[in-house]
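Practice problem: TatD DNase family Scn1
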Amino acid sequence: MTQVLKECTDVHCHLTDSTPTLDDIGKLPVSKIILMGTKLDNWALVEQTAVQFPSKVIPAFGIHPWMSSSSVPPYSTWTANETLNPALPTDTESEVSDIQTPSLVPDTQWLNDLKALLLKHPQAIVGEIGLDGAAKDRSTGELYSMDQQMQVFQAQMQLAIELERPVSMHAVHVHSQITHYFRDMDKICGYIKAQRKRNGRDWNESFQHESDRLPFPPAIMMHSFTASKEIGQSLVKLPHIGSRFYFSFSTIVNARGKKFEDRVRSIPHDRILIESDVSNAADEMSAMQSICQSVADIRGWTMLETAQKTTANANAFLRSCSRIV
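Answer key — structure tokens:
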């Protein structure tokens, strides 16, 4: 079993949340972990862990939707800088439905700090970010503000686009909104491709200039994917950005059952990732063993094949940092 775990990549975990010492993280048998930052207060510890174990830990920095109000000022107080947001060219508005992308990149301290961290760590990804339509603020008993979540999410997506970083995305009870959002982004990308083709530019050319990049992150990991198999298939089939989606599974969130099995079976083999999603290193090995076994059983693979295939997929997801498509 240890040999199988050595072949595994844990693409989403929160080990700095409650692991007693960082040395415990370094002793884990898995090949690599992607360590999530979820709020300003834990970015420094995520960074410290990645620096201490550079061959094992890939850092991820972001604002979790649960933290979008407590960790970030209300979006009504944000100011905008003078850099036009590349995700919404001014002549595409008639081509999309009702996408809510801001026209200017917000100029706020938390976002500036996030950008600085990502620039400092070229291997880092953006995460955990996203939207949650079910979680409640324990202090008020109210659902977290969706308006605030959306603004924080979109600001971080813009940063991922600007810096060409993969994204680890949280999506709970918002799958219709997310599907709508990604379909609109796909329309924008398709419009841009068509415009360039009409202007006589070969899209197969390897563009190097920032303005030539598609306004979408190089890869999106749908973390602990809980949507229907139909939604997963629809994302993969998006004509312009579908190749950038990966889907990760964990037993702590996805558990077992027919819907889980249907989801795992429906995802292309080269887009499946596995994760622990645990907060303590003491639980990481058993969580990875469990999800590796579950995916192996569903797909008809051995555990070793599952570890190797999902690690190859994780490497492709991470390599997308330097890809211009």
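Discussion: The chain has one domain: 2-322. Students who identified this feature from the tokens alone can consider the problem solved.
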